[in-house]
């Protein structure tokens, strides 16, 4: 089982990440990816010029690795990668790239879904949106917490 967990402050290229992840892969029948992009509108519809993800060196990486290790232990995946941006991200840029590989699709889909639900709510990031009216902090919403709660109730 290989885990690749990275926190980067430079632009993220999903095609390059996917190409590297697929390279030499012959044992698995499924690879599932997720790419998260910075939006140009907030939940309230207001314009966003930038999303800033603050982090604490060491702590943020550890939280991401803990989530990845939990996914690897929970699902029958053979490989997974999590690459997450930090710093200032403008609309349209990639925030996160997740890929999972498994012998069968259900495990690969479930692992990617689980990773994203936990990263969205539990990874050690502090998020701010900047728009015409200034900067404000954002937190996970009820929908995010509900998505996370379903994993605590399931025995997979």
Strand content bin: 25-35%
**Strands, total number:** 8
* Helix residue percentage: 25-40%
User: What's the alpha carbon Rg, rounded to whole Å?
Assistant: 16 Å
How far apart the termini lie comes to 18 Å
Q: Pairing-aware structural class of the strands and helices? A: alpha+beta
Strand order of the largest sheet: 1-4-6-2
Q: Count the helices. How many?
A: 4
Secondary-structure element order, N to C: EHEEHEEEHEEH
What is the approximate shape?
globular
The average pLDDT is 93
Describe the structure.
This protein has 156 residues and is an alpha+beta fold. Helices cover 35% and strands 35% of the residues. It contains four helices and eight strands; from the N terminus they run βαββαβββαββα. The strands form two sheets. The protein has a four-stranded mixed sheet with strand order 1-4-6-2, sandwiched between helices. The chain has a four-stranded antiparallel sheet with strand order 5-3-7-8, with no helix packed on it. Helix 2 runs antiparallel to helix 3 and helix 3 packs across helix 4. The longest helix is centred in the last third of the chain and has 18 residues. The mean pLDDT is 93.
């Amino acid at each position: 089982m290989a885990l690749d967990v990275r926190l980067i402050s430079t632009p993220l290229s999903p095609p390059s990440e996917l190409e590297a992840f697929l390279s030499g892969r012959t044992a698995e029948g499924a690879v599932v990816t997720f790419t998260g992009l910075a939006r140009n509108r907030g939940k309230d519809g207001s314009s966003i010029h930038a999303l800033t993800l603050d982090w604490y060196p060491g702590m943020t990486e550890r939280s991401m690795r803990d989530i990845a290790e939990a996914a690897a232990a929970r699902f029958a995946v053979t490989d997974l990668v999590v690459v997450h941006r930090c710093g200032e991200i403008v609309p349209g840029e990639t925030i996160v790239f997740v890929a999972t590989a498994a012998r069968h699709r259900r495990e690969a889909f479930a692992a990617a879904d689980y990773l994203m639900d936990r990263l969205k709510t539990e990874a050690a990031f502090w998020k701010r949106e900047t728009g015409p009216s200034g900067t404000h902090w954002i937190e996970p919403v009820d929908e995010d917490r509900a998505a996370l709660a379903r994993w605590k109730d399931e025995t997979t």
